Amino acid sequence: MEILLQPSEETLLAQMEKKHIPVETHCRSGICGMCKKRLLKGEVTYLEEPLAYLAEGEILVCCASATTEVVLDHQD
């Protein structure tokens, strides 16, 4: 499923929770990597630099905010 999110100072996780989109999380600070999603379109910035390992094209929604309209690949 693809998720469309708008530019905001809020984290992507906060936006997803407001839309009642379930996201698996644990630390909410970029350490555990549980909230990892594939960024299909757009640009994000990190409020806190994540410590979890990220492959090319992956982001952590707990500590990233959208600087442009973004599309995420969201698998339940």
TrEMBL record:
Pfam families: Fer2
Source taxon at top rank: Bacteria
SUPFAM superfamilies in the record: 2Fe-2S ferredoxin-like
Domain 2Fe-2S ferredoxin-type: 1-76
Entry's Gene Ontology molecular function annotations: 2 iron, 2 sulfur cluster binding
Protein name: 2Fe-2S-binding domain-containing protein
Organism: Alcanivorax nanhaiticus
